[in-house]
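Progress against Task 2.4 (sequence-to-structure conversion) is shown through the following example record, which the project officer requested during the mid-term review.
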Amino acid sequence: MTVTCFIRYEIDPFQRDAFREYAENWARIIPRCGGDLVGYFLPHEGTNDVAWGLIACESLAAYELYRSRLKADPEARANFAFAQGRRLILREQRTFLETVDGTFRVAATGEHR
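Structure tokens generated for the chain above:
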């Protein structure tokens, strides 16, 4: 069973570019530490202070192993320090989700009118 960590960030909307840099850094770090990076998402329209990150792992045990690797990784520690130093993340919430079989990444068929 794949478990996805859904992270909801409350960000400083004036630090959007810094959050983008923070998220882009994770694209190198997360896979190296054992996580499957689904993606980071910035607000486009509407609410301007909420962003999301989704990271999948094979199980909660695999997620815990990934987190321990992350804490030991120098680049990961530097990225956390970057976010703290800039105070770009005001609040962070984690929810763990289970994928519903047959519904994940179902592409458009082109049969729409």
